[in-house]
Each structure stands twice: as structure tokens, then as C-alpha cells.
Amino acid sequence: MGKYIIKRLLGLIPLLIAVTFLIFLFVHFIPGDPARLMAGKDATVHEVQAIRAELGLNKPLVEQYLVYMNDLLHGDLGYSLRSDVTVTELFSERFIPSMILSLLSIGWAVVIGILMGVVSAVFRGKWPDYFGTVTAISGISVPNFWLGLVMIQLFAVVLGVLPAGGIESWTGYILPAISLGAGIMAMITRFTRSSLVQTLQNDFIRTARSRGMNEKTVVFGHALKNSLITVLTIAGLQFGYLLGGSIVVEAVFSFPGMGRLLIDSIQFRDYPVVQSLLLIFSLEFILVNFLVDILYGFLNPKIRYQ
User: Fold this and answer.
1) CB within 8 Å of 98: residues ≥ 6 apart
2) How many separate domains does the chain show?
3) pLDDT tens digits in sequence order for the chain, 306 residues long
4) Structural domain that includes position 14
5) DSSP states of 47-73 as a string?
6) Were 250 and a residue from 40, 72, 92, 255 both cysteine, which residue would form a disulfide, CB within 3.0 to 4.6 Å?
7) Are residues 162 and 269 in the same domain?
């Protein structure tokens, strides 16, 4: 296992270089000129060219990329073209709230989703299974922004027990986390149910029952552990989307997260911020999938890494 982890870590190096190059090209191919936006509509051509030279945008793309990589390796993400503060400073204000929101969303979705999936599989064809199926289909079908608006109307406007937006207190995370996690919970419920139903029909489950094990030990001690690989894959992929994919929900709840920062930065052609945000989102995907691959070996004893 140790060799496998080291091999996977070394294999991430060329992948990270390719990711930085693609992100750099993508950002610089976005239509628009940040120098013109900074200079203003009434600026002369000479003023725009002066700003472009100051930002280094008049250099060849290859040279700009090498400068970007050199700064990145030294931990320098650059300055925001829009607000003239360091990108690191901008991230420090947005990253923690987005990470907390992502962890809360995936946390409750995984716990409730697995429990509902187990109940649906154990009581297959009975009312708990139908209830879980209806809940899962509803969670997948309902858009998260619409669910957010309904919950704002109910819990903030009518009942007045939760804030409609902002994160002045911990209660500000509750409604956005529920909105973001509802769809993930529904998917995990369905995948847990289908995977567990198949596992419960295997020979080793019948053997465990014939040896007199009680049903709780059979389900939670043997069947569920072998069914969690699919669930783990879904949870890992969905967590990767949460950090940067919650733009609409952040807008609904006026949440100061990374998604809104990305949209604002793209509109202003703020290259350093957009590049750094896309790099962080990519790193998150790579890291989560790496951890998921490692966890496979712990969940399924048949998997061996040499």
C-alpha cells in the first residue's frame, strides 16, 4: 500500500503540470481585455498599452506561462487586477466559508443517504422502501436553487427561525447546506440501495445467515462494507463539485463563497484570480479522487495494491 501511495503521488506531478497549462490557456482565451477594463472606456490607446505592459500581458504566452509557474512554485498567486490585493488575501476570506459549507453539505448527505439506502434495501418492496424511493426521486428532481427559495420563504420569512442569507452566525450555513446536499443525498440513497440489494444476494451473505449471525451484523458488518465502494465514488465526485459548483446557491443565500468570487472575476477578466480558483478546484478534484482510491483498499479486502 505504501508503494502504491508513493507511485500515485509521483504520477500526480505531470497531471498537475498539464492542468496548470490548460487552465492558463483557457483563461487567456476568454474574450475581452483586462487592460481595457482597468483603464476605463475613456482611456487612450497609449494608456491601455501602458497598463498591458505593466501587467505583463504584452509578452508572449509562453513567457507569461513560465512567469506564472515560477510564481506558483514560490507560493505567489499574484495580485487581483480588480481589487489590487493579493489573491491569497482574497481566498482567505472566501475559502473557509466555502469549505465549511461543502463539508456540511456532503456530511449530512452521506449519513442520511446511506441510512435511507440501507433501510430501503433491507425492507425492499415495503413502505420504507417506497418512502425512500419517493424521497430520493424528489431530491434528484428538485433544483437546489428552488429548494433554497422555498426554505427561505418557510424558515426565514414565515417562521423566522433561520436567516435568509449571510453567515453572521453558524445558523447561516443550515439552509445552504440542506439545499446543496439534497440532490447528493438522493443519489447516495439510490446507489446504496441498489448496491446493497445485490450484495445481500451473494453467497457469503447466505453463509453468514446460515451460521446464525443476526441480521444487523450481516447487514452492517458484512454487506454494507462491500457496498460502499460505489457510494464512496459518488460522494467523492460530488464533493469535488461542491466547492466551486455552488454558485447558484451562493447567489440565492448571498453566501460569500468561492463560486461568487469566480463569477465576478470572470466578468472582470481578472486573470490571476480566475487561474488560481480553477487551479484550486482542479487540485481538490485530484486530491479527493486520490483519497477515494486509497480508501478502496480499506473497504474491499479483495483489492490489493502492489
Assistant:
1) 243, 246, 257, 258, 259
2) 2
3) 677 677 777 777 888 888 888 888 887 777 777 777 667 767 777 777 777 777 777 788 888 888 888 888 888 887 887 777 888 888 877 888 888 888 899 899 999 999 999 999 888 888 888 888 888 888 888 888 888 889 999 998 898 888 888 788 888 889 999 998 888 899 899 889 988 888 888 888 888 888 888 888 888 888 887 788 778 888 877 777 776 657 778 888 888 888 778 887 877 777 788 888 888 888 888 888 888 777 776 766 666 555
4) 1-74
5) HHHHHHHHHTTTS-HHHHHHHHHHHHH
6) 255
7) yes
